[in-house]
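Ops channel
N.P.: pipeline sanity check, posting one input/output pair.
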């Protein structure tokens, strides 16, 4: 995963509360195991049913920041939902609140979730596609009018995102200790270390 850097860009408004993972990524598209290629299915049903779905409008289509209502990502633990949002082009999702498992899944792939007070989210929804800046380093959002709003963010997840460490990278950081353990432990079966 790439290290997270400050994002400055347009905002896309999805003014809906309680958007669940099935609405983000419908179940019929969960047949693949790759993490890419899911962007085309994001909000599929709404895009099919609504003639002028807001996120399809040209002024919002390429925005790197999605702004939405409370309890975003509720429902099942569906990794495909964050994969699809990221593949669509979002780098940040801002909402008053997120479902815990959705937020965790986003953090594992480098998609930043920022919880802001409802009044600030409303301001962003109303101002879209106004550009803002999101800094994970400073834990701040610079609003369209220049006002800076701080947000709370888990220290460990922040460190991982800033360094681009996913679960595999975190394991590889301990490669020396893993090799030491493998070399010294007693075993009954064949060695997993190379013979050469």
């Amino acid at each position: 995963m790439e290290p997270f850097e400050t994002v400055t860009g347009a905002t896309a408004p999805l003014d809906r509360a309680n958007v669940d993972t099935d609405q983000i990524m419908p179940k019929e598209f969960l047949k693949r195991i790759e993490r890419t290629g899911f962007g085309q299915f994001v909000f599929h049903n709404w895009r099919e049913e609504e003639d002028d779905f807001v996120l399809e409008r040209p002024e919002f289509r390429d925005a790197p920041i999605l702004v939405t209502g409370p309890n975003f990502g509720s429902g099942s633990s569906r990794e495909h939902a964050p994969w699809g949002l990221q593949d669509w082009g979002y780098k940040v999702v801002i909402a008053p609140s997120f479902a815990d498992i959705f937020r965790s899944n986003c953090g594992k792939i480098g998609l930043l979730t920022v919880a802001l007070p409802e009044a600030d989210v409303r301001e962003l929804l109303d101002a879209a596609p106004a550009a803002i800046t999101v800094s994970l380093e400073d834990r701040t959002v610079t609003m369209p009018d220049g006002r800076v709003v701080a947000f709370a963010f888990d220290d460990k997840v922040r460190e991982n995102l800033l360094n681009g460490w996913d679960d595999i990278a975190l394991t590889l950081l301990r490669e020396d200790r893993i090799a030491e353990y493998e070399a010294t432990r007693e075993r009954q079966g064949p060695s997993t270390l190379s013979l050469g």
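N.P.: looks fine end to end. The longest helix spans residues 100-109.
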